[in-house]
Give the backbone structure.
Amino acid sequence: MNNRKEKKHNKKSYFLFLFLPCLLLTAYCLLFSCGKKGEPALKSYEKPDPPSGLQAIHRESDIILLWDFPKDKEPEIKGFYLMKSPGGDFERIAFLGNNVRSYVDTSFKIGSEYKYKIISQNVNDVTSNDSNIIDIKPKSPPVPPENISFKIEYDSLLLTWKSAKKEILYNIYKSDKKGLYSLMPLNKDPIRETFFRDSFDIKKPVYYSVRSLVGDDIWSEGASSEEVGISPSEFVPSAPVGIQAVVTEENIYLTWKESPETWVVGYRVYREIDKKEGFLFIGETRTPAFIDNEKPFIKRNYRVAAMGPSKEGPLAEIRDVVFIPYR
């Protein structure tokens, strides 16, 4: 009987000896976050980062809300709660996905005051502190500007329009797709002038629209102006000026003044030796100079045209070029 008890006791001792260290190690890891896998589990119960830079734009019948949140921290959160106060306590008005950075609120009245804030919620439903709070009192949007036009200057494009009204400011919107514009204007701050200069790319069309706005810190924008589209393929350069010819026994050097348009891509040269054949194309050059290696013992005329992105400008001419030997 005692032998049986002793054997049973030995089995218990062996079991404790074998498994007790494992149990203790597991308990230690749970208590003290042993290993790398414990850190995310505990961190997920911490408050997530709040959104930042909350701002608002009142545009026609919309209040557009925008905010920032780090892209690399999106996997840590479910999304954002947008909150609004129409004069009392804040109420949650929308839950938005973790990759969303804007919201359009259409439920408001002109002249009423509203406050907004936004918070983030992580995967364990822990919410962040509040973002900055913004206060907006929408005003009646002004009428859009009229008579939008443009002019190509030496190194820029000049937009002009008719003033909508005194005390009105303007935002400029630009796009490479017709009718599709970003939420944010091209200009950093609203402008008071009725003109705007911008650089441009001669390789693709561009579109502009202008909005009038009133307000102080948060602006109320009116409807968009008529869209103006500018296609570099329609640019026609001016005719070259100051063509001169330097004649030798072997060839003719043609030079002229560089075109004032920055978007000129080169020049085309034509030569006429007899009236029957007329002017024939003899070459292109990127610079305002060209060498005709046809020996100049026969009188000839030349024409030169500047080339835009896709169209050739008017021709400039120099006549009666011939080699006259010294005597």
Observations:
- The longest strand covers residues 206-215.
- The CA atoms of residues 269 and 283 lie 6 Å apart.
- The helical segments are 2-32, 38-43.
- The domain at 146-232 is CATH 2.60.40.10 (Immunoglobulin-like).
